[in-house]
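Researcher: I'm comparing several assemblies side by side, and this is the next one on my list. It has 732 residues spread over two chains. Same procedure as the others: predict the full complex and return the structure.
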Amino acid sequence: MKRRKIWTNLSTAVLIATPAATQAAASPAQLAFAIEARADECLVQLAQHQGHGGAAMPATRDGEGEGGAAELPASLHLARGIAMIRGHLLIGGELIEAGRWKEALPHFLHPEEEIYASLRNDLKAYGVGPFQTTLKALSQTVKAKNKEAYARARATLEERLAAAESAVLAKEENKPYFVLETALETLQQASDEYEEAVENGRIANVVEYQDARGFVYEVDRLVGAVADALAAKDAEAMKALRASLSDLKATFPTPMPPQKAVKDAGEFLSAVSKFELQLGKFR
Amino acid sequence: MPRTRRFEPGLRLAGLALAGLGLAGLCLGAFSASVRAGSGTFDADHWRRVFARPEYAPMPTGNATTPEKVALGAMLFEDPRLSGDGTVSCATCHQAELSFTDGVPRHEGHDGQPLDRRTPSLWNTAWGLSWFWDGRAAGLEAQAAEPILNKREMAGDVRRAVEILAADASASRSFARAFPEDPTVTRDNILKALAAFQRTLVSPETKFDRWVKGNDDALDQDEMAGFRLFVGRARCVSCHTGWRFTDEAFHDIGLPGTDPGRGAVLGLKEVDNAFKTPSLRERVWTAPYTHDGSLTTLEDVVDHYADRVIERPTVSADLPRRIELNATERAQLVAFLSTLSSEDPPRPASLPARTIALGGDAQAATTFVGQKNRRFTPGAVLLKVGEVLRIVNDDTRVHNVRIDGPGMSVNSDAQNPGDTVTVGFDQPGRYDAICGVHPEMRLTVQVEP
């Protein structure tokens, strides 16, 4: 079930077989294996999407947001990064509202530790000012469990994210479609997180479950924001999009996971692919 | 880590020398700024001297900075018993995690209304020449009494606080250790201990200090351009000078508002609206800015200087009336200001590391696991039921320890570098611990009957 585990094992195997091989030299073989491994799990359809299924995970997982990053155009990469950061803020904010500061903290540290570095060049390319310290200034308020300071620091960060988002969108001709592409990319990340979270029908890793919830709800918000334009283009397809999003959201009834996982990783992925199937209709 | 001198005549000299240096810095700063306006040259050696960090923290005669006193002061700083209703401590407003500020424009006072002014950061207050935004306190010792007594801050009664602390055996012992020559709980000793602790709050070296020490590559192109603007055309250095970036003087920088500031202290209309130049160290972590907290970001501050200075007779003669700064230059100034801050929220070395106990007797821990370089080391441990595991953050970043069942669910608070988490196991089985901040960090704990 665990793609990452397969991947890691494979790379070790390759390295053992040819001790001198660098990761780069070994990667074509790994790629083929990885795609096969995914094919076994009925992931062919997703793997075809922009070809980033196969290379989704480097041998060492150097944080989320790096998966397939190299192949994404800068616009999509940046937009996905912003969506992921917002997804983290979303779940983190829910946990704070519930008084769970300790649980919330990782979601405020992740954007800076795992996502921001990969966005640095994109931000420069789009002429958007850096906001790394804004992220850190926000997480320090969560560490301090100081709600007023948190609210202020969060508002400052939201402004930065909104500015970055408009800079990206300004250059897109078909904005609603671009938003859908961003949504799909973010859902792929959600399924990676979810896959890490479930184990034998239970949520073994609460943080990854929460990441996935944050991403899915952020996607729901993104799509909601362009819903009118999408419905004008194809009302039926829009309905189908909404249905797949409801199905995905139902995976996460509460910020803290339920006793029993609602979906297994395969079911989650197939819900994502239902979303993907509609995309072509909005091009 | 501040180095403090222990013998007093030397210290006095150091203090005098420092004050002298501050003044010299001021004059030099103003001088070079005016020279450069015409020439456009940049004298790196000169600026390296102006911004060099001092070797010693000053300390007054009569209140030596001893470890025992600092420890007591750190405790009192967080002790709500100094307040009238036992709910407010210094740390309520000066939160260590927020660089000793509170993240809001003006903290809510006892009466539910915002206080008159913003809570200032307490980094490097040892070097101050006067305290508070309007400079009304002449020493850190004298200063500490004010918030305790202030009806809107702690609304305390020092006599009652002395009684309460004297009745607490452990607190009395701490006072005795801190003041061997006068081993009692007194008002003076409370204030001295608080001041001694605050003198240890020295902001760490930053990127900019590496440049000052001679590393020409420490600042990138934008940061360097910002620095040149800071000491050049934008003339920030006429007030923000010396290693702390303050002239310790009072200026009106043309903010809206009616608080007379220094004017009221001196009874001089000419200095109405003037406030003490704040240090610019660690400001990335202390938003919002200025005495009324009205500027929300560093970008906002720079925009103020460029576009929004209010014209009135009290505006400081050192303040350029109009600075032409385009968007790039403004961003460069902000980039430079950021090099005066640590790359992560700094934590003073004088605050003790925490131990977070999750079941079991923390003292009884026998097995140790480290967290260096985002890795639990060792990655798997074998324990017997009832044994206690100690996980020490020997890394440079914040970690956390959590186990999400089956059979056991624990989640530690944020674990700063140096902090320890202890976990007790009373049931046999296999437990998978992760760091919630870096979920790829895994630790397997096998507990045998």
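Model: For your comparison table: The beta strands of chain A are 198-199, 202-203.
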